[in-house]
Structure formats: structure tokens, C-alpha cells
Amino acid sequence: MEQLPLFDESVLGSLRRFGQPTFLQRMVDMFLGTTGGPVQQAVSAAAAGDWDSVAFAAHSLKSSAGNLGLPRLTGIVQGLEVAARTRNSDAATVWLSDLRGVWEESCATLAEYRGKI
Question: What's this model's pTM, rounded to 2 decimal places?
């Protein structure tokens, strides 16, 4: 699978048209402050074999990442959600192996972008 870009700045540029820079800053802050929980939930639930919880956590991350222009993270959680829903633990393990690192990179990229708003 070809690796998707980490960040698509044009998505946030489109969001910027909806309001003042504070709107975009709040969206980034919300992502940074709330997505660590679902990442940890996905990892912990997978370790426990709780695939419904893995799918739920992945689904919640998918829309957040997509809305902020994070295609690589979106792709990972999309794949993880499908793997969890189909109870494919081998595929889920592959997606989970990249999840935390890509999420951390995404957060760092968003934080840097936020500083330029």
C-alpha cells in the first residue's frame, strides 16, 4: 500500500473560510486534547480481544482525522475499523503497529500548524 501523506493543509485552509482563526485553533485544540483517549482505547481493547471497542475507537478517530486533513491517520484507523469489525486480528495488529506513531506525528504537525494560524 502506498503511504498516504501525513497532512493535507488544504483541508484546514478550507475550514479557515468558516470563521476566524480562533475557530480553527479550537478545532485543532480539541483534536489534540481528545484523541489520545481513543488511541489508547483501541490499543487496550485489542489486547483484550474486544473488537467492538476497537472498532468504536477507530471510527471516532476516523472522522476527527479526516476533518483536520490527516489522510495517513485516517487510512490507518479506517483499516483498523474494518479489521476490528471483521475480527481479523492479524490485520488489526498491522494497523495498530502504526497507530500511535502516526497519531503522535499528526499531533505534532497540527500543533506546528496551529502556531502559524
Answer: 0.94
